[in-house]
Design goal:
6 helices, Zincin-like
């Protein structure tokens, strides 16, 4: 359960002002800062009863990190012929073949895209979403089945704020952009959401289950997403 948001501003060292959106959250146990490269704003989540002044002071000490994230997000990549794109963490060069049909296929370090050159980026985004749905569904069903956890529906979207979510009904939804990340990041995210099928909170029992069922180190994956996750939103059609 979340309360109302409030809007503030962060002043960076170069004098630029970045919108700061503060969200109190009943489940938050600490301050957490993210940068939304698409919206160009910083998002601060804080515990429901924490001091707003303390939270804003803390955010003001993170301006160096915000500047770095802002600079990284500024380099948007429009998908098209010759562009390099990470798929499951491996860089692939997009090659518009001009071949009949709109088939997209991996061949070595190339992503071969048939059909007309116009709207090639949109076709690649649809292909990536299809790949993500298939891979994440397989990963999730396999892990949930292995541990006897009741899974509902698996779906994908393109949220800005989270990489995955699990509903009380057992439905799990992911960001399709996880298909761009290395496999260990995707697998740790799957373990996180599958663990919510038993524990709908982030308490000690939940984290213990994540570590027990994850095939990779969740701390390493979480660190990668904190460091590189914003960059996955750079790719547009």
């Amino acid at each position: 359960m979340s309360s109302a948001r409030s809007e503030h501003a962060l002043i960076l060292a170069d004098g630029a002002t970045v919108p700061l959106v503060v969200q109190r959250h009943a489940r938050a146990r600490r301050l957490r800062l993210r940068f939304d490269g698409l919206a160009g704003e910083a998002l601060l989540t804080m515990p429901a009863r924490a001091s707003l002044r303390t939270a804003l002071d803390w955010a003001g000490q993170q301006t160096g990190w915000v500047e770095a994230q802002r600079a990284r997000a500024a380099g948007r990549v429009v998908l098209g012929d010759g562009v390099w794109l990470p798929v499951q963490g491996e860089p692939l060069r997009i090659v518009a073949t001009g071949a009949p049909g709109r088939r997209i296929a991996r061949e070595g370090d190339r992503l071969l895209v048939g059909g007309p050159a116009d709207h090639i980026g949109a076709r690649i985004l649809r292909w990536l979403a299809t790949e993500a749905r298939a891979v994440l569904t397989d990963d999730t069903r396999a892990l949930a089945g292995e541990h006897g956890l009741p899974l509902g529906r698996v779906s994908i979207g393109d949220p800005r704020a989270r990489w995955g979510s699990c509903s009380a009904r057992g439905d799990i939804r992911y960001s399709w952009r996880l298909i761009l990340a290395p496999p260990h990041v995707r697998l740790a995210t799957v373990a996180h959401e599958v663990a919510h099928l038993r524990h709908m909170h982030h308490g000690p029992d939940f984290h213990a289950l994540v570590r027990a069922i994850s095939p990779v180190d969740p701390d390493v994956a979480r660190a990668w997403l904190r460091r590189e996750g914003t960059g996955l939103h750079r790719y547009v059609g």
